[in-house]
Amino acid sequence: MPLNEEKLMLRLKQSPEQLTANMGNWEEFEEALEQKEQTEERLKVLRKELESLRGNVTRAEVITKAAKKKHYDGNVKFQELQAVITKAAKKKHYDGNVKFQELQAKFRAADAVRQTANNHLRSLRIQLKEKEEEKARIEELRREEEARLKEQSQLEEKAKAEAACERKKRKAERAQARAAAKHKKKSNRRKRRKRRS
């Protein structure tokens, strides 16, 4: 049964006096229920954001691993290339400076690739750190929302308990009033009988 229909059924079961007396309690109760619904909606949105962020962090970790491997492979190739260049330059020094300059250009190009890979890896590490901080912040918000929901739930339970206590009290008062009226009626009958006799 939807929440609005449930509220309406509860109101219809009460007498006009009870509705008037409980109006303040019902308004507080309805406000608490509405706040709970809003908080639950907000918590759902936060959970979706958290799932999205988890996916982003996972993707960033995969990219970081790939970049580390690329960086390692780049370093190995760079060292191998450096050794080849040095050996070739020594062996073919007599061929002139032209060949050596070409090899130096390749060396510089390989060094530039290595620097680019290093910069990319550094950037990915920064992004990963930012994602982790954002994930921690979302987690903190989720914990706060859960604490707020728990507090609202406790307030609702308290309001229900107070309403139940108030109903019992009114029921007892009505029973006492009926008993008093019954007693008064009997007392009046006795008085009439005494007068007749």
TrEMBL record:
The keyword rRNA-binding does not apply. InterPro entries: PPI1-4 (IPR055282). Residues 180-197 have a biased composition (Basic residues). Keywords: Cell membrane, Coiled coil, Endoplasmic reticulum, Membrane, Transmembrane, Transmembrane helix. It is a single-pass membrane protein. Residues 144-197 are annotated as: Disordered. Residues 29-63 form a coiled coil. Residues 144-166 have a biased composition (Basic and acidic residues). One of its GO terms (cellular component) is endoplasmic reticulum membrane. It is found in: Cell membrane; Endoplasmic reticulum membrane. Transmembrane segments: none annotated. The keyword Transmembrane helix applies. Belongs to the plant Proton pump-interactor protein family. This is Uncharacterized protein. It comes from Trapa natans.
